[in-house]
Amino acid sequence: MDGIQAGKKAAAVEAVNNHISDNQVIGIGSGTTVVSAVERIAQRVKDENLKLVCIPTSFQAKQLIVDNNLVLGTLEQYPQLDVAIDGADEVDKNLVCIKGGGGCLTQEKIVANCAKTLIIIADSRKNVEMLGTNWKQGIPLEVVDIAYRPVQLQVTQLLGGSAELRMGKSKMGPCVTDNGNFIIDWVFDKNGNWHEINTKLKMIPGVVETGLFVNMAKKAYFGQPDGSVLAREAKQ
């Protein structure tokens, strides 16, 4: 296991050990780091006979839950969650996160908003002072397909930078989300008040959701290459 993978696993295990307990409803995020979290949850369920219900944020998360023989639930059944555990593409000094590199930002934000506590797990590369330090792909915006071109123009006119339609890697044409929408990656040219920026982006007709998670994460665990974990809490 290389240093990055060791860090991801260490962060996931630490978070699950500290925040998962019996009779909880848990939001399960998406991405590579979450795989280790689900494996640890499954191990604890087996060892401790925990009674848990898991709510997925994506098709990938749903498959992880099923494959690990965990109890699958929906937001219809459980609109209020105890905790959500998810990864991030980058996390700044205020625990503002960029998420959606894997295209699941809308479901991830819905589930996170339903949880009393959102816990972020990531390797040490994602821990930065300012957004855009290591993650250069920009902030994902999920958009209704017919609106993608007007959204591109309005985002750049309003906030600068560049706004690129994300293309599929194994299919011809644009990347399509689990909701049937397109994704625009807005590469910003400067940091700012992310709460205000997020609001401006959300107000553009056709934007379904943004990959900016502002004032949502309560704690973040960053796994180091040596297997140690750095934990940071949101400022009150």
Compact summary:
This protein is of the alpha/beta class. The protein has six helices and 13 strands. It is 31% helix and 26% strand.
Written overview of the protein:
The model has no long low-confidence stretch (mean pLDDT 96). The chain starts with a helix and ends with a strand. With 236 residues, the chain is α/β, with parallel strands linked by helices. It has helices spanning 3-19, 32-48, 59-67, 105-114, 148-159, 194-202; strands at 24-28, 52-56, 81-86, 90-91, 97-98, 115-123, 139-143, 162-165, 182-187, 207-210, 212-213, 217-223, 229-233. The protein has a six-stranded mixed sheet with strand order 2-1-3-6-12-13, with helices on both faces. The chain has two domains: 3-129 and 214-225, 3-Layer(aba) Sandwich (Rossmann fold); 139-208, ACT domain (Alpha-Beta Plaits). The relative contact order is 0.18.
